[in-house]
Amino acid sequence: MLDVVQTPLKSLIARRRPGYTLEAPFYTSPQILQTDLDLIFGHHWIYVGVEPDVPEPGDVMVVDIGANSVLIVRDDDLGVKAFHNVCRHRGARLVHEPKTTVGNLVCGYHQWTYNLEGKLVHADHMGKDFDPGCHGLKPVHLRSLAGLLFICLSDDPPADFDEMAAVMTPYIAPHDIANCKVIHQSDLIELGNWKLTMENNRECYHCSANHPELTIPLFAYGFGFSPDSVDETELKQAQRYEQMVCDLGAQWEADGLPSREVDRLDDMVTGYRTQRLPIDRDGESQTIDTKVASKKLLGQFTNSKLGGLSFWTQPNSWHHFMSDHIVTFSVIPLDAERTLLRTKWLVHKDAVEGVDYDLENVIGVWVATNDQDGTLVGWAQAGARSQAYEPGPYSPYTEMLVDKFCNWYIGRLNALLPR
User: At the top level of CATH, which class does the domain 160-416 belong to?
Assistant: First the structure.
């Protein structure tokens, strides 16, 4: 597939204008989408879920990325492993449900059976010279970053995951993902290219006009503003916000909770960014009333006012960690003009629904925001199809992270395309 688009794609890359949106084929071409699957989703660390997705031995989760299906399983030693979801006999899919629990992994076609370590333990009628040791499941590289699960389909995954993990583990570990549970998952199909979903996430230029729920807990100033286009009152509010970031950040750091901004979005292969930011009003959680949605706080937290830790990764995820709950997002292309946005909400594993938390309160802000964003992505996709579309300029004040996403994407294609 790569040779079909190699020359025109290289031309598109060469004439990419920094600070501007990508040309239309990046959003509409099935050939470029296949290249994205091969080179971006096939060679980088892809966020796929959390350790509580497979809490007990035998628990299995399936993730599909393009033509590849990957099963993630908790083994009997409580380790988490990933394998290609392909039987080594005649290639049938092993697990068909998104989540299940098994004793062994049994192929429904001819009953070849694998243990939770991926070893072939049963295969009838194969003859005395057959070596089952040569027919175990094919492993997929998997890493857990303080409970966030990333896979890499490449035989040679980027080595800088360790660099990201060394920085991010102290930020995420206090939220104790291992002792959380997933209380809700939303799979939303957005009618747009996956890059439009990611670009939309990387800015809040659109927030005040489109996200009435999200802008209750979140300060729009946290995502940039233009100082020459605000009045005196708005400027004072922005200055107050910056002071809160400074004061609360220092307080959280002093309490052993890393909070400072780290931005490596476009200067690493495994690009990422993080920062802990204040929450407005009561300052506790990303909820409609800005109070905690779960009375059972995460980890060892006793202070509910810990702001929101945001963590972004290239190419496909973002996450929000509060004192009481966690929201994670993964983006997976379905085709050139459809994208799966998968959102998971986690609370403490001992929190009881109806006693410690109300589900609708936990998920309300981001269910509404995701629906609104899906509409916006669809509008952008419709525009990219038009003959009138041409790359437009990003705001230097509020769309800096969008530009960094595109810089990273173009840079990685340029590095991985055949010369």
Answer: alpha beta
